[in-house]
Amino acid sequence: MSTSTTPQQSVVVTTYTRGIVGPGNAMLGPLADGGTIRVGTPPGCWGPMITPKFQGGHEVSQPVAVAGAEVGDAVAIHIKAMEVTSLATSSGVMSFVDGRYLGDPFVAKLCPSCGTVSPPSHIEGIGDDAVHCDVCGAEVNAFRFTNGYVIVLDKDNKVSLTVDHAAAGRLAAQARENAALPANAEQHSILSLARTDIVGLAAHMQPFLGNIGTTPSKDLPDSHNAGDFGAFLVDAPHAYAMTQAELDAHKTDGHMDTNSVRAGAILICPVKVPGAGIYMGDMHAQQGNGEVAGHATDVSGVTEVQVEVIKGLAIDGPILLQRPDDLPPMARPMNAEQRAAVKALAERFGQTAIEENGPITFIGSGRNLNDATHNGVDRAARLTGLSPDEILNRATITGSIEISRLPGVVRVTFLCPLPILDRLGIGDLVRAQYGLDR
User: Fold this and answer.
1) Which has the closest alpha carbon to 405: 199, 202, 208, 152?
2) Cα separation of 429 and 426, whole Å?
3) How many CB atoms within 10 Å of residue 345?
4) With contact defined as beta carbons under 8 Å apart, do 401 and 412 qualify?
5) Tens of pLDDT along 241-270?
6) Rounded distance, CA 241 to CA 230, Å?
């Protein structure tokens, strides 16, 4: 914890955890209930992946304690603003280099020449062999692109474009500056590799955070704070090994890669350590439904959130109140004309009751998409008291199951009766988010 004990209305975060989330990290704050956090985050994924001293696949922010947040509560994170600051980034499909890691290249990298685990390193030149061990000088990168690209970004017009090798080389010559790495970031910029398999492809920009949430109750790699990547910790040959039961108990599923976790959304997260410990990172410039390439366009950025404590809401993983325009079509609340038509339909068939409900999304994670779907449905059933089969029916006709990431993160969205949401203490949040009548 920080030395301050007086809750602060605003906390600015400019420090990071080198890839680990958990109670071993000192917390900033405490933030007052209802206060705001402003965080400038470095890119996730590829930059930390090619930086051997990192023991996780991201570089997330130092956690912030929230006054009054106790184990068994939840915190609602209102995402107020999100801005990309990188001028360019690089990404693509990955492969591992054998002999350069112990069990997991995201967590325990190894110099193949001198045998140093998680060695300090530096950049020499441009390309796949640019990362070198400080101890012996050997090329030490544990990852390679199988297909990659460099992409330049226009945040004002919300467009981007992949570039050729000449342009990528110019960007690589000033990689840290073009990536807009924050002053305290310790990662190498992935722009240094300058991989350009896709050239001239234009894409929309719609930034979101791939890793945001609350601190797990045991230290673990930030990229593994979910049921799919976390599965690599089970019986692993390194210091962060866990059993499956330990993983299930401690993780908070902050690593979601869910593209609707963006400005205007509300993310409700479990509190598994005193103070909650809110952290953020892994901003993406864009991504469709499903990070199917394994990685998206990781960028530096600035995010501002407002946080409130929800007492007694004991949840196992995140609940997402998506922006109305991000909801799957079947889950969008009906307008006045549609409601009138439903009322007429009820009268026509003698149906007296019409349910009052609102959209809600449960995040599920697991080793694969089937396991993740079962996890999301089970979380929804346990919390709401509805049966798993009813959740499946509701998701089928008033919602959707959507992929957030391969191999195993999904969104389970459905219309939930408002009396249940009121009982949980989030009915007013849902009403305000979707303009529903009290």
Assistant:
1) 208
2) 5
3) 11
4) yes
5) 999 999 999 999 999 999 999 999 999 999
6) 10
Residue 37, SS3? strand
pLDDT surpasses 50 at 1: no
Q: pLDDT tens for residues 301-353?
A: 999 999 999 999 999 999 999 999 999 999 999 999 999 999 999 999 999 99
Output the pLDDT for position 24. 97
Taking residue 48's Cβ as centre, other Cβ atoms within 10 Å add up to 33
Question: In the predicted model, what is the mean pLDDT of residues 199-211?
Answer: 98
Question: Could you tell me which of 67, 78, 50, 70 has the C-alpha nearest to residue 306?
Answer: 78
Alpha-carbon distance of 25 to 251, in angstroms, equals 15
d(CA 61, CA 21): 9
Does domain 8-86+207-321 match CATH 3.30.420.10? Answer: no
- Rounded alpha-carbon distances, angstroms, from residue 128 to 169, 273, 338, 406: 13, 40, 57, 25
Whether the pTM exceeds 0.90: the reply is: yes
d(CA 265, CA 278): 16
| Domain extent listing, the chain | 8-86+207-321, 88-204, 324-434
Helices 388-398, 369-384: axis angle to 10 degrees equals 110
